Amino acid sequence: MAKLFTPFSVKGVTFKNRIVMSPMCMYSCHREDGMVEDWHRTHYTSRAVGQAGLIIVEATAVTPQGRISPQDLGIWSDDHVAGLKELTGLVKEHGTAIGIQLAHAGRKAVLEGEILAPSALAFNEKSKTPKEMTKADIEETIEAFKKGAQRAKEAGFDVIELHGAHGYLINEFLSPLSNQRTDEYGGSAENRYRFLREIIDAVKTVWDGPLFVRVSANDYTEGGLTVEDYIPLAKWMKDQGVDLIDVSSGAVVPARINVYPGYQVKFAETIREGAGIATSAVGLITSGIQAEEILQNERADLVLIGREFLRDPYWPRTAAKELGVEIEAPKQYERGWR
Ligand code: FNR
C-alpha cells in the first residue's frame, strides 16, 4: 500500500489519506464582508468529492484590517460562523477533514485605511507604510486570533492552522528583516517569537484539537531567517502543543526564489528531524510518485497540494492510478471512477 493512502491521526482526528489541499485564497467574497459564498461551497466540496484527506480553507482574516484584500474570507464576527459551518458540513459529508487557516495580513494588507505591522517598514516601494503596533494593538490582535479559534470550533472545523508564513503579520514578527522593535517583542529570537507564543497560548485556551502552524522556513535574504533558525522555534511550538509545522518559505521581503519540483521539501525534512515534530511538505509537488517519495523517506508526514489541486480536483484519484492503488470512490461515481 502506498503510504500516501494510509491514514494520519492527530488528537483524535483521522485523515483518510495524507493528501492535503493547501490553503489558497480565492478572493471570492464579492460582497466584501468575509462571508462564505457559492464559490467556496463549490470549490472546497469538489476537492472533498475528489478524496482529499484534509482540506485547509484559505487564509481567513481574524480582523477586517487583517485581510489581504477586501474579498478575503473572514472570521472576525459571530456572523461568519453560519456560512463556515455550512462549508464544514458540505466537506465532511464526503469523509474529508477540514481545517481553517487563521490569518492576519499585517503590512501586506492591500486595504483602505491604516495597516499594522511590528515596525513601520513598508514591504516594498509600492506598498503602504504600516503603523508600528502598540501593546494594545498586539493584545487586541491576539484576542482576535483567540476569538477566531473559538468561532472555528463552533463552525465544526477539525484543524486550525495559524498563518505564520509568507510575510504576513506573524511572520513579520518572527523575522528580524521586518521586526525592528526594541521592546519585548523584538530583538532576540525569544522576543520575536513572543507574539506567536502568545497567540498559540490564547488559541489553546479555547481549542484542544489539532493545531498546525505554517512557517516560511527561509527568508532568502542576508540577515533574514534560515531553516536552522526555525529549529528552536519549532521546538518551542512543539512544547506549546502545536502538532504539525506546515513548511513553506519566502515572501517576508521581496527576494528571488529558486523554484523547482519539491523546492521546500528539504526544509520540512530539516525541521522534522531537528525539532522532532510532524511536518508537511508543500511547493511544486505534482505527482503521486513525488509525494510517495517524500513520505516513504520520512521527509514529511503530510503532503500539501496547491495549484495541482486547482487543475485537477480529483488529484487523489490521479495519484492513486499513478501509484497503482485503488481508492474508494464517492458511491455515486463508483461505475465511472476506475
Ligand atoms: C496560495 N498560497 C497560499 N498559502 C497560504 O498559506 N495561504 C493562502 O491563503 C494562500 N493563498 C494562495 C492562493 C493561490 C491562488 C495560490 C496559487 C497559492 C500558497 C499555496 O498554499 C502553496 O503553498 C503554494 O502554491 C505552493 O504549492 P503548489 O501550488 O506548488 O502545490
3D structure, described in words:
By secondary structure, the protein is an alpha/beta fold. It has one domain (15-337): Alpha-Beta Barrel (TIM Barrel). It is built from ten helices and 13 strands. It has helices spanning 38-49, 81-92, 135-154, 169-174, 189-204, 227-239, 265-275, 288-296, 307-311, 315-323, and strands at residues 8-10, 13-15, 19-21, 54-61, 73-74, 97-103, 116-117, 131-132, 159-164, 211-216, 244-248, 278-281, 302-305. The strands form three sheets. It has an eight-stranded parallel beta barrel, surrounded by six helices. A two-stranded antiparallel ribbon has the order 1-2. Helix 1 (38-49) links the parallel strand 3 (19-21) and strand 4. Helix 1 (38-49) packs parallel to helix 2, helix 3 (135-154) runs parallel beside helix 5 (189-204) and helix 6 (227-239) packs across helix 7. It is globular, with a radius of gyration of 19 Å. The model has no long low-confidence stretch (mean pLDDT 98). Bound molecules: ligand FNR. Ligand FNR binds at residues 22-25, 58-59, 101, 163, 165-166, 214, 248, 282-285, 305-308. It holds the Pfam family Oxidored_FMN. Its EC number is 1.6.99.1. Belongs to the NADH:flavin oxidoreductase/NADH oxidase family. NamA subfamily.
Which structural category fits the helices and strands?
alpha/beta
Question: Could you say what the CATH topology is called?
Answer: TIM Barrel
CATH class label = Alpha Beta
CATH homologous superfamily placement: Aldolase class I
Specify the helix fraction band. Answer: 25-40%
What does the radius of gyration come to?
Answer: 19 Å
Binding site for substrate: 27, 163-166
Organism: Neobacillus notoginsengisoli
Keywords: Detoxification, Flavoprotein, FMN, NADP, Oxidoreductase
InterPro entries: Aldolase_TIM, NADPH_DH_bac, OxRdtase_FMN_N, YqjM-like
